[in-house]
Amino acid sequence: MKEKRKFRGIVPPVITVFDSAGEIDREKTKKFIRHLIDEGVHGIFVAGSTGEAALMTMEQRREIIDVGVEAAGGKVPVFAGTGHNATRIAVELSKYAEKAGADAVVLHLPHYPKPTQEGIYQHYKAAAEAVSIPVFVYSWPGQYAHDIAPETVARLAKDGYIKGIKDTAEDIDHTAEIIRLTEGSISVFEGFESKVLPALCLGAVGSVCTIANLIPAEVVAIYDFFMKGNLEEARKKQLSIFGLINSLSSRHDSQLLKDGIKMLGYDVGDALMPTNDPVPVDIKEKLREELKKLGKLE
Q1: At a CB cut-off of 8 Å and minimum separation 6, what does 29 contact?
Q2: Mind telling me the catalytic residues?
Q3: CB 223 within 8 A of CB 212
Q4: What's this model's pTM, rounded to 2 decimal places?
Q5: Mean pLDDT confidence for 209-238
Q6: Rounded CA gap, 268 and 257, in Å?
């Protein structure tokens, strides 16, 4: 039986490195994942939004799960993105992830066509009944223009169909309500890097945030200071990354993020079409300045 893993802390939604033909560069992706693990992250999430899973073929979605499991080598839990609008495909991917050795599956909300809350409930129930590893909800209303009600999360938790959620809601009240209704029965992860500390204070167990690809140690430090009870240092660290957060907010795709990672010396290629258009020089320079302020560049 697979050893139970702790789901907590800072879990980057890892970028995927593609070659010029749009195929997954397995070795470069594994190298980058191992770099993140060396920086102290508590888990990795492959085939998420930041990993460009929505732009992958089904074969690539299976491949990146294999890559993540291989790269982690059992050192940290592997969360595999297996969401799909079609329940049967989400179930198929979830079964594959379990067989490949992932520790948990993360399913984004089915959003087109938009299901009812009952439809959402049945979607996650079907996935949970198909696999024996934990199932997590991934909610991002700003991206998918659809949401899961906190009451639906609580119902899924009560019935034992989910073990956690990545809640990427603009309004932290949404996350707080989920934490209140589930009463610690599931692992609640915050999805926005600007809300890591506030969410921890409310009872979240960690964060699955994009910026942890760029400055993993700094985000880990927020969590570590909080866990040690040093709220003042956690507060300072959280505030220190806001400039970088703001510099990334001008583009919500992987190209700017990958440009920033390349500034730090990691060969991670470019984003896939249609989000790989060149980033304007002034935006890249703003990102470079923020990395300098954090001591990441000379």
Answers
A1: 14, 15, 16, 17, 64, 67, 71
A2: 138, 166
A3: no
A4: 0.95
A5: 98
A6: 10
